[in-house]
Amino acid sequence: MLREIYYQIMGFVRTFGAFQLFFVKLVMNSPRIFVRRFGLVVQQVYNAGALSLVIIMVCGLFVGGVLGLQGHSNLSKFNAEDSVGTFAAFSLIKELGPVITALLFAGRAGTALASEIGLMKATDQLSAMEMMAINPLRRVLVPRFLGGVISMPMLVAVFTSVGLFGAHVVAVDLLAVDAGAFWQQMQSTLEIADIYEGIVKSVVFGVVASLIAVWEGYNAVPTAEGVGRATTRTVVITAIAVLILDFMITAWYLG
Amino acid sequence: MDNSSYELIEIHDLDYSRGARQIFNGLNVEIRRGEVTAIMGPSGTGKTTLLRLITKQLIPDRGVILVDGQDLSALNQKQLYKLRRRFGMLFQNGALLTDFNVFENVAFPLREHTRLPNRLIRHIVLTKLHAVGLRGAADMMPAELSGGMARRVALARAMVMDPDILIYDEPFVGLDPISMGVIVRLVRKMNDALGISSILVSHDVQEIASVADRTYLISDGKVAASGSPQELKKTSSDLVQQFMNGMADGPVPFHYSAPNYAEQLLGRDAE
User: Fold this and answer.
1) A132 touches chain B (CB under 8 A)
2) Which residues, including other chains, have CB under 8 Å from residue B87's CB and lie 6 or more apart?
3) Degrees (nearest 5) of the Cα angle B144, B171, B146?
4) What ipTM does the predicted assembly reach?
5) A14-35 pLDDT, tens per residue?
6) Mean pLDDT across the stretch A84-90?
7) A107-128 as b/e: b if 16+ CB within 10 A
8) Disruptive mutation site among A132, A134, A135, A140 for chain B (greatest number of B CBs within 10 Å)
9) Minimal CA–CA distance to B230: which of B208, B249, B263?
10) Min CA distance, B104 vs chain A (Å)?
């Protein structure tokens, strides 16, 4: 029993160490790949970012719409429905934008990355590259990691903007909040530091979500079942990591 | 060839185990320059593992592997990659890159390793595809190819950097007789026309007999027999006879180790 717990802990420590080493290798190789193989990175920004745009925009629109509804219904109890713009902006920029985008990113782009890399491993494509003296870490993993890291902040920006538009449609166009008040209150209360917080979160979540997807794919057991499991783990681990990190970053900002 | 007696790959006292299972135990193999060497053995004897050890995709527990006089264990990654450029490897299922069409798959090593102009790359790729008879399939995607075609494309890709050593991992598995004949012919033709050395892992006795110059039969982590296929057929060893003639029972038993049949049927083993 004790021995089993010991092995479990040792296994975890070992995996975590390997994970960190993997991260360092990705980061160390990133500048070189970014400069020399920019085309590969652009291709992956397209795969991870552009192909996620539709789901990000649809979800952003409806999340914004819900914020408009909830904000209006609750704030109107205090005759403060003019603040619905501020409410939606704070929620989206600081919390919902980065967090929901990261979760959607894990579901759309993360799973695609993990299963693609896992399948490449299962069908010996990565070994074949090794045998052609081509480093799969540089040729396959780093461009995909960079693609995710670059896409995430842009997706967060799109999600947040579309969300604000959704809140505006609901609050101003449907529930007759004054458009001037909606924007003016938002502008006077929102500070640049709040936007920085959102940007910091989006960058951190982008790194974490891409790293987990690439790691899970690369370390998948090279069978159909193993690839399936890696895909599931990508979503689950990213979701947990993002929510814990969100709490930590928020706590740090609030000081 | 004047240096044909010179050993290209030497494996001395190789031990390798995966988990608790010992796969090689004091294995000694020598692969000669300019020859087609076949590694044979029953399934699960670690034939593919041996290829991965020769190419340092795996690292042995003990023993020395010399490739062209270089000790694999002493190579750093840069030196290893330099050495690997001299290898061409054909994987069991082809291992073609699924995102690229046939042409781009074959062009892939050239695009990664050289700065040749597109015209020249096109020329080289079409030449290699022509050699395997698939120039007409250049625009097809890997998913559209049959198993035999995929393996021929992979062979063209393995040859595109003009390697000194071509390695084939189970090249005959799952092929119809025509495709198999094509691959057998290509293995021999590539080896002789390009003056390279070939290593072939397989358990298809007939195909090996028609193509290999020298054969190693591996069993229980050691070389059970070696020599030309004709010599092997004449060997008196029971194991070699069982393998070469495809007999169901012999030194490699038909029955996986199990408790006494009668006792198990009568339920005595459960008591």
Assistant:
1) yes
2) A131, B55, B163, B164, B165, B166, B167
3) 15
4) 0.82
5) 999 999 999 999 999 999 999 9
6) 93
7) bbbbbbbbbbbbbbbbbbbbbb
8) A132
9) B208
10) 14
